Amino acid sequence: MKYLIQKGFTLRFTISLLVIIAILLTMLTSITSAVQVNRASLIGNYLQNNEQYAKKLASNTNELLVTMQQNINAIAKISGRSQEMDAQLFDDLFQENTQYFNSIVVADADRIVRALSPHTIGIEVGDQLTSAQSKMAVSLKAPFISNPYRATTGRYIILISAPIVDASGAYQGFVGGTIYLEDKNVLSTMLKEHFFGNGSYVYVVEKNGAIIFHPDKQRIGKSVISNPVVKNVLMKKSGSQRVTNSEGGQFFAGYAYEPSSSWGIISQTPTSVIDKPLHDLIKRVLLASLPFLLLILILGWWVASRIAKPLNTLAQFSDQATLGSARPQNVPDIKSAYYEVRLLSQSVKIAFQHLNQDLTQLRNEAGVDELTGLANRRTLDTVLQQWTEYHVPFAVILIDIDHFKGVNDTYGHVLGDQVLKHLAQLMRNVSLEGDLCFRYGGEEFGILVQRSGPREAGVVAERLRKEMERTVNPIGVPVTISAGVAAYPEHGRSPRDLILKADEALYRSKTGGRNRVTLSGEAEVKQVRSGR
């Protein structure tokens, strides 16, 4: 290097250095773009999945609380039949409800304990309950779910109560079932395992912002009202966002409000889970690009002394590719009589094309079809797997544009693409929140209709077919579609079986004359009979 500085840099060295810098900048730009696209996709997926998971748990929690209240009501009715509760009967009733309650107590209108089970909870028959929640149960004389409180036994609990009335309708007291929040309970059993299994977890807050369930039991009872996610969910909102919690941890959080208890369900994943996929992505792109980089360097060093002028053109292109606002699609053609110059130009073109192909492939893998904006095959496979694993009822509608090859041959691919976009918009119009519209490939599309049977999905498909038939298409003439419908679990319990059944129904639609909808195992859907 000292010798080069004293003598001056040779043209060969200077040109080779420029080639190295230009190609490295191009590679850096491509890798940066790929990482940004993939990061945005991963963040969006985690936010969406956590929100859906929180909504599912909120629904499950609602069903659980309804069941628990019904069971307490039933015990209250039994208690109202006689003045004294048979101890053995009461123990039997408790045993039937151990999966829901840690203990059950019967108290009269003066809050004197008349029966309890188990008998090791720290109070005895004849004791008077003094908590504000027991006073509220007597005051309300109606079923209610209490806020968390510290009982006289020292336990942090939630009380679910129901009034006791005798045959004449007179108030006799109440039955209370308790959940011990700091011990193993029905909430911890339901919520302790997060389906991601990657450091994600669920916690629950009551309406004042105190934690009533958390994998870390030491945090139960602590207020997290300052957490922006908790603020949102206690405002009866559901959604998702990136959040920093009260302990400084960063998470992708989804949240849902449970109205019967005014609880908030939060499902969150550490933001660090996206680091490894992004590192793997960078490594994969570097390994794919390295052979082409080495080829360009070798050829550039060999012919640098004879290609000063053509290389200047290539350098300007590289500068535009790495620093310009618009990325050029093709390397400029180099006019030269030298075989070496043409070879270098072709090598740069190949390297740039491969880098663009890698970036395009990564974008396609991100989950969205670039032409229509619908979900792509990868997203479809992920959602199908999740819904079947969690037994979510749904139906699959597979759609094929009739005679689409003729549209492309007659009007060209530009208008053909407009027809695809037109169908995609109609699919969005007929679908509801929670449904998934996707492009299966080519002119094949589909909709996952959540919580729907085959006939309800058939109604959606028939509505889409009519909309496509009667609306004005970009080519100015009617274009029709055929569709096939299959439902989980009626027609299959695996993603592969459902797609096959829907595809078979679609095939019957096409062989039956096209422009029709067919349910799996049944005939064509003739008309729309009801809406969703």
Summarize the topology:
Elements: H1 2-7, H2 11-79, H3 87-96, E1 103-108, E2 113-117, H4 132-140, E3 144-145, E4 149-150, E5 156-165, E6 171-180, H5 186-191, E7 201-205, E8 211-213, H6 228-234, E9 239-244, E10 250-258, E11 263-270, H7 275-303, H8 308-323, H9 339-365, H10 377-389, E12 394-401, H11 404-411, H12 413-430, E13 436-441, E14 444-450, H13 454-470, E15 481-488, H14 495-511, E16 517-519, E17 524-525
Parallel strand pairs: 15-16
Antiparallel strand pairs: 1-2, 1-6, 3-5, 4-5, 5-6, 7-8, 7-11, 9-10, 10-11, 12-14, 12-15, 13-14, 16-17
The residue-averaged pLDDT reads 83
Can you summarize the main beta sheet? 6 strands, antiparallel
Which residues sit in consecutive blocks of at least 5 with pLDDT less than 50?
526-531
* Structural class by helix and strand composition: alpha+beta
Kindly state the percentage of residues in helix.
40-55%
Looking at the structure, what is the overall shape? elongated
Helix count?
A: 14
- The quaternary organization reads as single chain
Give the number of DSSP strands.
17
